[in-house]
Amino acid sequence: AQKVTQAQTEISVVEKEDVTLDCVYETRDTTYYLFWYKQPPSGELVFLIRRNSFDEQNEISGRYSWNFQKSTSSFNFTITASQVVDSAVYFCALSGNNAGNMLTFGGGTRLMVKP
Amino acid sequence: DVKVTQSSRYLVKRTGEKVFLECVQDMDHENMFWYRQDPGLGLRLIYFSYDVKMKEKGDIPEGYSVSREKKERFSLILESASTNQTSMYLCASSLNGGGSQPQHFGDGTRLSIL
């Protein structure tokens, strides 16, 4: 069975602070994929990034960066110099090697960035 | 860009009604999914479909059915709506790809059953 845990249910920061959202996963698959999604107040889930299990390189995209560590089964997401527009619920998700691209979602972390 | 369109952003129905939620995607994706999202419970998979006329139960299929007559359209049906089906419903689609392909989501439908 697969499991994704986002221990932080809610985080509140002040604009321009850096913030890290934690994601820990469990899977028995040797090949798997990790995803992050953003859900702003309007409701739609927006795909942010995908990482596969055999590529542990960290990734940076503007103010966003992701740290994938297989040794600790973690795929953490850092926002640098947070902005009010970053306020959203963020979901981490896991997919094993399955044809249907089924996702196991974490419970989500609500990030509030205050001006 | 992938576009997943859900027919309604907000919907209010009465207990016992038969309710149809429609979802259309424009990228020729094989897979389509229906989730519901409730506070404290995250996203839960109701049904999914690998291909036209194919459907598989997710984690919480009770009280729901689905229809996929065309590749681009996946409908969720509440056979006899009940108040505990008041929720946010999200549709998604993806390509096949051994788990590697991201799901793309619609804007969601906030359904209230009175």
- Rg on CA atoms of chain A, Å: 14 Å
From the spread of the alpha carbons, the general shape of chain A counts as globular
| Share of residues in helices of chain B | under 10%
Average pLDDT of chain B, to the nearest integer? 93
User: What is the CA-atom radius of gyration of chain B, in angstroms?
Assistant: 13 Å
- What is the largest interface, and how many residues per chain? A-B, 27 and 27 residues
How far apart are the first and last residues' alpha carbons of chain A, in Å? 41 Å
> How many distinct helices of chain B?
0
Sketch the major β-sheet of chain B. Answer: 7 strands, mixed
Total strands of chain B: the figure is 11
Please bin the fraction of helical residues of chain A.
under 10%
For the biggest sheet of chain A, the summary is: 6 strands, mixed
Q: Which sequence of SSEs, written as H and E, runs from N to C of chain A? A: EEEEEEEEEEEE
Beginning-to-end CA distance, first to last residue of chain B: 36 Å
Beta fraction of the residues of chain A?
Answer: over 45%
Low-confidence regions of chain B: none
The low-confidence runs of chain A, each spanning 5 or more residues with pLDDT under 50, are none
